[in-house]
Hints:
The chain has 467 residues and is α/β, with parallel strands linked by helices.
Amino acid sequence: MKIEEEILLKDVHAKILSYLDNPQIKPIETVGNIRKDLNITLGSSSDFDHIRTSVDKYLQYSTKTSSSNFFNQLYGGFSITGHIGEMLSSITNNSMYTYEMSPVSTLMEIELVKKMSSFVGYENGGGIFVPGGSNGNLLAMLAARQRKAPETMKKGLFKTAELTVFVSKDSHYSMVKSAVQLGIGTDNVMKVDTDDEGKMLVSDLERLIRESIEKNQKPFFVGATSGSTVRGSFDSLNEINKICKKYDLWLHVDGSWGGSALLSRNHRNLLEGAEKSDSFSWCAHKAMSQPLICTVALFKSPSILREINSIEGTNYLFHDKTDEINMGEYSLQCGRRVDSLKLWLTWKYLGDIGFEKHIDHLFNMAKYAEEKIESSEELILISPVNYLNLCFQVKPNGLAPEQVDDFTIAIRHKLLEKGKAMVNYAKIDNKNCIRLVTVNPDLTTEHLDTFFENVEAMSILLLKEGY
Length: 467
């Protein structure tokens, strides 16, 4: 490394530390302002001073997900071991397709898959790291299609009866996208009704399966949700499994958000019956606080992965050495970055007990926030709290019922505008609500007190402004 490159690297690391020390949430700048302040265009070369300036501007305008005032997505916070893993992965620049390219990380990935499979309850399970929960759901649906209609791998879907998929109305949109990408089609994705808590209605699932069979279609996949995106609801896996066994359907659990509850003895009952599923998606970059992306797709019978990824013409890459394990033979991808290292380092540091305490803390923060909402005279819970999602409306005295929806969203926007907090919003049963997520491991009761104080302050401010 040249001297000037070494100096640049040290300067950037100093900038990163300064960035992490400042927890302030800032309003999102407009496209025009960012383009005016930072030269986005490419073509002309620049010196390292311009690179330093660009790094400064990037950090200045980036959304600060490590802040204790960031409640906007299903992830947040900062993991030092995760950061170290990211740096090492980038510096070594290995690819996960062959053992000789990633010898240590191959063993780490295998160990993590084994460990996480044991928490799900797969005795001889296996799997692979994938680029996000959406991809994990896609891989599971592909595996299910292979089991139900293996002829499609060679002949395509043209000579196969219409395949049908069943997911709840509150399932992640990646389920529909997966059906599109696999040629199943959106018309063949059956949306199952949910109960008042957002859980899949098993009676409606069976009704839709029966209707599909009567139409001479071919049901093959049921996608259950453990931790829905908005409400944080958990489908009843034992009951859904009974239906899947009855009609010989693949049961996949989208545990991208809620799968981490398995790490806690106090809360793993939310996923009771997970061991009866055929596959399971789990995002460690969410409640386990790892840097994006860190997702594993787990399978009760992992041999299906090699079956759906076994393609001719790969001898140049996979050389069939008996003492090597080539993860690329189980992956939809060829080149694949090392996502296992950051999680392995974090698990090595925390251990099982440490991760359990981590998850229990997040639940404790959610419980505290729930109590704050219920004790308030102007905050109204819109959905029961099952996980780390808290969905509520803001209704101060004197506000007309028809104004509550818009007022609630106005509170959210005002919090961001004033740099107080970044929190998301959603719609439940045609009611607009703020969705608070207690996923940051550094979150304290004081942070939540401040958040709710700011909600109240923004409510007063809006009313004074004549809302």
